[in-house]
Amino acid sequence: MEHAQIDISSVSNWEEFHAVFAHKFSFPDYYGKNMNAWIDCMEDFALGDRSLMLHMDGMAKLKEVCPEIYEAICECSSFINYRSKESGGSTFLALSFSS
Questions:
Q1: Which of 8, 16, 25, 32 is most buried, judging by how many CB atoms fall within 10 Å of its CB?
Q2: How far are the Cα atoms of 26, 78, 83 from residue 20, in angstroms, in the given order?
Q3: Residue 3 is inside which H or E element, if any?
Q4: CA-based nearest residue to 72, from 36, 30, 28, 32
């Protein structure tokens, strides 16, 4: 399992959220900066032939400041795992939150 750490404590809107992830994971230039594109890029990065433990710093603040982004991260990560399982995959995206 691969591990990645990302600090999202400075995120206060969707634009910043997508910029932080695009930079951290080297999303392609054509990244659509929406959650469908996020799912596709995270699947490409996280899954393939490996699983990913994503440690996210600043989640308590994000949940307070931008609850819709917090919920989207949880829901979309869950969808990535669902889609992997449905297609017969054994890889997954695990989330770890810290304040």
A1: 8
A2: 10, 20, 24
A3: strand 2-7
A4: 36
